[in-house]
Amino acid sequence: METKLETQYEQFETGAAPVKAWTRGVPIEDAARRQVENVARLPFIHGHVAVMPDVHFGRGATVGSVIPTKGAIIPAAVGVDIGCGMCAVKTSLTSHDLPETLKPLRSAIEKAVPVGFGDYGDHVPKASEKVWYQRLKERYDLLQQQYPAVATSKSPARQLGTLGGGNHFIEVCLDQDDAVWVMLHSGSRGVGNRIGQHFIAAAKAEMERLGVLLPDRDLAYLKEGSVLFDDYVDAVSWAQDYARMNRAVMLERVLDVLKASFKDFATSDHAVNCHHNYIAREVHFGDKVWVTRKGAVSAQSGELGIIPGSMGAKSFIVRGKGNAESFCSCSHGAGRVMSRGAAKERFSLEDHALATAHVECRKDTGVIDETPGAYKDIDAVMAAQSDLVEIVSTLRQVVCVKG
């Protein structure tokens, strides 16, 4: 349900569709702004483009943007980590139940959920997961027959229940009432990447075939009604379902670790599993449109979502306010304030260790690009979108697992 609220966005004109940006008090780099303006100039934008406070430069379209379209979809705007998102659940534990030393708990989680970019041939679906996976496998087999290029050497079956690397993580957190939560971030793994790459290339080839000139080649689009469009929507739907299942499987495995470690362990009904890189068919301003959320979360009225900070910052469970101007969306996190390369040059291991002193996590050079200073101030990000969501729970991590 959409709601007309007193909004706090800033609007700038592009010569075509306007842009409404929830960026008061947070930085937006010039390169990201140019990307947003390029998107707004496309002829099939519905109304305006919405920009979230975690906005930063991405491939083709900015991360932290909501792109409503009629008659076309931009594969690169969805990206290659299709269906990437968050999952979280509250447990019956409190901080008093946790051991003084948390490294064994972190090690147990890393053993239960493989991390990094491997294939994990010995990590196959459990019996309880096989019905889910079989349904997805049947759809994937059909897709693979039609488009052999989406096949990947990293089997979707073997990567089910694995984290990946980069900004993907698993965390044990405490909320404002001292309750323990499990929260994780991951997507559709290698197979989602192959699907994204294949259709991005196909869209570029289609633009060349049709002689369409674009301000950025990564804004190549597929026209609704074409075979490519229909196949892309089907493939993205598959990848989004796979990503959601992948998070659910990992969450179950982390909870199994906690069940084995603590007596009288239980979880609450207060659980969330949401995408932030995806497409959806929705009705906005009276029209049915395709909504691409690239680094943005659905925030329909009453809908629960997750907005994480960085390795050393707070995260939030939020409830959407259904703000129509944002196409009922909010940010998907704090958002990067500098590139990974810039973070590696700027921050030392000592900087990283100090910023994550309160967290049991990796303190090595492999995660310097994920250090808290590489991200925007999460409090400023939340303040900039107070008309989009209300905070339900504030979480701080005590354990963080990264690939």
UniProtKB/TrEMBL annotation:
<dbReference type="InterPro" id="IPR052915">
    <property type="entry name" value="RtcB-like"/>
</dbReference>
<dbReference type="Pfam" id="PF01139">
    <property type="entry name" value="RtcB"/>
</dbReference>
<keyword id="KW-0436">Ligase</keyword>
<keyword id="KW-0692">RNA repair</keyword>
<keyword id="KW-0479">Metal-binding</keyword>
<dbReference type="InterPro" id="IPR001233">
    <property type="entry name" value="RtcB"/>
</dbReference>
<protein>
    <recommendedName>
        <fullName>3'-phosphate/5'-hydroxy nucleic acid ligase</fullName>
        <ecNumber>6.5.1.8</ecNumber>
    </recommendedName>
</protein>
<keyword id="KW-0547">Nucleotide-binding</keyword>
<dbReference type="GO" id="GO:0170057">
    <property type="term" value="F:RNA ligase (GTP) activity"/>
</dbReference>
<keyword id="KW-0464">Manganese</keyword>
<keyword id="KW-0342">GTP-binding</keyword>
<dbReference type="InterPro" id="IPR036025">
    <property type="entry name" value="RtcB-like_sf"/>
</dbReference>
